[in-house]
Amino acid sequence: MNPGKSPEDFYRYDEEYRNNIATVDAEGKRRWVFVKKQGGRIHNARAYVTLALFSVYFIGPFLNWNGHPLFLFNFFDRKFIIFGYPFWPQDFFLLAIFLIIFFIFIIVFTVAFGRAWCGWACPQTLFLEMVFRKIEYWIEGDAPAQRRLQKAPWTFDKIWKKGAKQFIFILISALISHLTLAYLIGIDEVKEIVTQPPVERWGGFMAIIAFTGIFYSVFAWFREQACIAVCPYGRLQGVLLGKESLAVIYDWLRGEPRAKISKHEEEKKGDCIDCKLCLHVCPTGIDIRNGTQLECVNCGACADACDEVMDKIERPRGLIRLSSLAGVEKGKHKTFTPRVIGFSAVLLLLLSLLTYLITARAEVQTTVLKMPGTLYARTDDGLISNVYNIVFVNKTFRDMPLEVKIESPPDANITQLGNSSVMVPKDGLYKSTFVVKMSDKHLTGMTTEIVLGVYEKGKKISTERVKFLGPFVMKKK
Fold first, then answer.
1. What is the pLDDT of residue 214?
2. Of 118, 121, 130, nearest to 39 (Cα)?
3. Residue 111: how many other CB atoms lie within 10 Å
4. In this structure, is the dihedral angle defined by the CA atoms of residues 150, 154, 159 and 160, taken in order, positive or negative?
5. Helix (H, G, I), strand (E, B), or coil: what is residue 64?
6. Given 115, 182, 460, 466, which residue has the most CB atoms within 10 angstroms?
7. CA atoms of 425 and 399, how far apart (whole Å)
8. Which domain holds residue 400?
């Protein structure tokens, strides 16, 4: 143990890491990461979480609620279904609130739990480490065998292994592509694309090809570079992580100074024997002993590897563990800091607001506007008439018979032009024109407010207020 020391006291081993990316060599070329296979307590926990998330992902497109998908994110037709509840462009104000909540949630989650999302729930990490990497181990072997195969000449064995691996990668990428597209356009549309000739569903066919190519290139070639060079989340660490944020941490107080095991130790050394196994199992190729870095995705592989080594040399586990800087320095990790509590309170308020707006959202959106280019007219019976356009947007999955009634003034009357009945189709809209007539005695000036009630089977579902134009009326004092 080395009480009183700080991380900076031990970074003398390799200060150069701050200026380099582990996966890029001195010439700026890609350094391929051969990751050593590693199991352990954290890996097993991640495997269970992955299984649960994959179950939701693979089953999701096939789940229906009242004949409609449980989840649909159709950006092309601007139609979204979340837990069987439809959302339309008219509900985009809810999207704005949701995005604010999402960003605050990212802040709260990152401040408290670091990059737990990256290592435990991010699709990029889960598919790469739990699917594609496993297939690579199965066909080519562990990291040393992969290196040897990479350097070997193109023999039949190398061609067979490389070809089989890439073929399976393409098949899995195609499967992911079909499922992803099912979330965007629906599983029924995907079935039609698959079963019909490509020339009849050319757009959908090309979308599947494009998605397959993207997923294949990411998981077979780009890999950890997506986390390092593309994803902006890692760069948020610099402003969001604090001393209490959860992360994969190397306990420098225990581990330093590093030294190989020797039977003739002249001075007390740290628990770290500098085996570099933590580096060999890292999927982004970093040395966690250098501290928190942009490339670290909090997968915990280094912690599992270090625990195995500590067991073998009969020293306590946890030299590398899920903790925080404060947890190492003070021996106690505190998750709910004032910053986390403050952000959580704001998040709770916004969630309450969003919940209220969703539950209070009208099933039918009604828009009533004066017909363009018209003022008012006087009928043969001496009444004043105005013509209006009305649009109903049905946000439900059922046809809705609607009726519009005048609620104020009481003796005004309404006449619908054309079809006398209003049947708004499910997921659709209905446009109509109607005439409102009223006597001069109800006019309050050149514009008078009238109140309309929209009813479904006798039940009032909304109230609309519009302006009624008329001649100038001198009000009596």
1. 97
2. 130
3. 22
4. negative
5. strand
6. 115
7. 5
8. 364-469
